Every structure is written in structure tokens, then in C-alpha cells.
């Protein structure tokens, strides 16, 4: 039994404890919820609620920290290994280097998708424009569309 289990036995139900044990396997809360013996129906929102429970969150953090200590795997180590592989020049297959650079770039947030926002406005009715030399076109008058027209 891990110290996470020892620390939380008094505050967590057996199913909650099982959820804490299952979550670190794949970091998928929904699947951990199901593997812990809960119904698949509504598993997503219910699993999220469990993650927000302070006692469960603390137990999961403890379990993840213990795993990092046992395995020697941490975010810093993974980033360092990816960087070493990405920037080495001798004996590295180019596609391996490309993949390492891709993973490193994603981790650093270099490849965020562009989001296009369309904030156009539709005005119904007659709109009168005038050209102001100091600015772009300006609305000088607006007559709303009559009721019932669209």
C-alpha cells in the first residue's frame, strides 16, 4: 500500500481510493472512474467532480509524486531528453529528430493553432455612410428595418 493510500484511507471511500489508484495509469479520469467500479453512464462529468474533490486531488498528487520518484521520470527529464535527441547531430535518424523537435515544440507551446474570430456586424435597414478623411467610413445615420421584414 502506498503512502497515498495510508494518508487517505480515513477520508476516502474504497471506490474513491480505487479511483486514486487507477488515475495515474493513463491520466484519463473517465476511464479511471469506470475502472474504479462506477457506471460508465455519466462517467465524464462525475470523474471531473472527483478530480475537483480536494482530498482526492491531494491523494492523486501524492501518488503521481511517488511514481515520479520511483521511476525517475519527470516533465523536466522528458524535456531534457527530447532536447538532447532533437539537437544531437551524430547517428540520429532525421525522422526521430523531427519527431523529438515536434514533441518539444508542442510542450513549449510553439505550435498553437490559429483561431480566426469573425466579429462582423449585420445591420438591417438603411445605413448612410460618409467619408471622413481622418478615419475610415463612419455611420452617420441609421434607419432600422421596419417591423416584420427580415
Automatic annotation (TrEMBL):
Signal peptide: none
GO BP: any one term: chromosome organization
One Pfam family per UniProt: Terminase_2
Keyword field: Viral genome packaging, Viral release from host cell
InterPro entries linked to this entry: SPP1-like_terminase (IPR052404), Terminase_Gp1_N_sf (IPR038713), Terminase_ssu (IPR005335)
Name of this protein: Terminase small subunit
Species assigned in the record: marine sediment metagenome
